[in-house]
UniProtKB/TrEMBL annotation:
<feature type="domain" description="Ketoreductase">
    <location>
        <begin position="16"/>
        <end position="185"/>
    </location>
</feature>
<dbReference type="InterPro" id="IPR057326">
    <property type="entry name" value="KR_dom"/>
</dbReference>
<dbReference type="InterPro" id="IPR002347">
    <property type="entry name" value="SDR_fam"/>
</dbReference>
<protein>
    <submittedName>
        <fullName>SDR family oxidoreductase</fullName>
    </submittedName>
</protein>
<dbReference type="InterPro" id="IPR020904">
    <property type="entry name" value="Sc_DH/Rdtase_CS"/>
</dbReference>
<comment type="similarity">
    <text>Belongs to the short-chain dehydrogenases/reductases (SDR) family.</text>
</comment>
<keyword id="KW-0560">Oxidoreductase</keyword>
<dbReference type="GO" id="GO:0016491">
    <property type="term" value="F:oxidoreductase activity"/>
</dbReference>
<dbReference type="Pfam" id="PF13561">
    <property type="entry name" value="adh_short_C2"/>
</dbReference>
<dbReference type="InterPro" id="IPR036291">
    <property type="entry name" value="NAD(P)-bd_dom_sf"/>
</dbReference>
């Protein structure tokens, strides 16, 4: 067997269909790009159309199969409509990446019902509802990959973790519950745990060079994360080669969590 064929057997995603939420920006955009370049047909889901179009145009210009669905994952109806629209493009997905997330960051004492509900809706409930929609089908077909994107704050509290940390901790528990249910049927369910990654999500913080430098110094690699750092781990978790990896939280954080 040629090295090319060997690598393809482990990692290629030809013929697979992937849905990536938040695939128009930051980490999700890099993951969608990685899955598409590895051969998957990718549907990205987010709200803003201009960003969705730009992300898909970039991929199609690169010879990839990609499409977009505009939807608000902050409401149950929005999530359900997004799922149906996404499945209508290339068929039922083999790979679901629950990456869309928000971090509203008020101090704990100011976490009101609105902050709590919005955070839980986008960060926890949308991943649950999308998985409920697609997971059983993956199990019936005997192959599936569910990948959630969580946070250091699923494991430790800092910089006003508040409702955000709670939502991400619960998302890792959700991955384990799903792994228990669906792994016997070929569906692995894992989470990618970023460190501090330079994306629009934390644009305001990035103007504070001292804070950014201190965060980089907390890693072992010596720099903050970039969206493209997630490409390899995402392709691995989406492919055949990770068939025996399930229920896990995989830290892509430059050593942040172990420093
Ligand atoms: N950057 C970091 O340092 C870091 C660290 C730890 C964890 N994370 C996690 O990594 C994930 C991606 O973060 P990022 O930094 O790449 O963020 P980002 O650049 O702000 O991208 C967020 C994506 O989610 C979409 N989105 C947000 N709210 C949505 C909604 N209600 N409905 C549909 N789509 C929605 C956004 O598009 P629209 O706004 O157009 O909807 C965008 O595509 C998040 O789950 C985040 O919590 C990031």
């Amino acid at each position: 067997m040629s090295p090319q064929n060997y690598l393809s057997e482990l990692f290629a995603l030809d013929g697979r269909v992937a849905v990536v939420t938040g695939g128009s920006s930051g980490i999700g955009k890099a993951i969608a790009g990685a899955l598409a370049r590895a051969g998957a047909s990718v549907v990205i889901v987010a709200r803003r159309e201009a960003e969705l179009v730009a992300a898909v145009d970039e991929l199609t210009a690169d010879g990839c199969r990609a499409a977009w669905v505009s939807a608000d994952l902050g409401t149950r109806d929005g999530v359900r409509a997004a799922a149906e629209k996404a499945a209508a493009v290339y068929g039922e997905p083999d790979i679901l990446v629950n990456n869309a997330g928000i971090n509203l960051r008020p101090p704990m004492g100011e976490v009101d019902d609105e902050v709590w509900d919005r955070t839980m809706a986008v960060n926890l409930e949308a991943p649950h509802l999308l998985s409920q929609r697609f997971g059983p089908g993956m199990a019936a077909r005997g192959f599936g990959r569910i990948i959630h994107v969580t946070s250091q704050q699923a494991h430790r509290a800092f910089v006003d973790s508040g409702a955000y940390g709670v939502s991400k901790g619960a998302l890792e528990s959700l991955a384990r519950s799903q792994a228990e249910a669906w792994s016997p049927h070929g569906v692995t369910c894992n989470t990618l745990v970023p460190g501090f990654v330079l994306t629009p999500l934390n644009a305001r913080l990035q103007s504070d060079t001292e804070k950014i430098g201190a965060l980089a110094a907390r890693t072992m690699i010596g720099r903050n994360g970039l969206p493209e750092d997630f490409a390899g781990a995402a392709v691995f978790l989406a492919g055949r080669g990770s068939a025996y990896v399930t229920g896990q939280s995989i830290f892509v954080d430059g050593g942040f969590s172990v420093h």
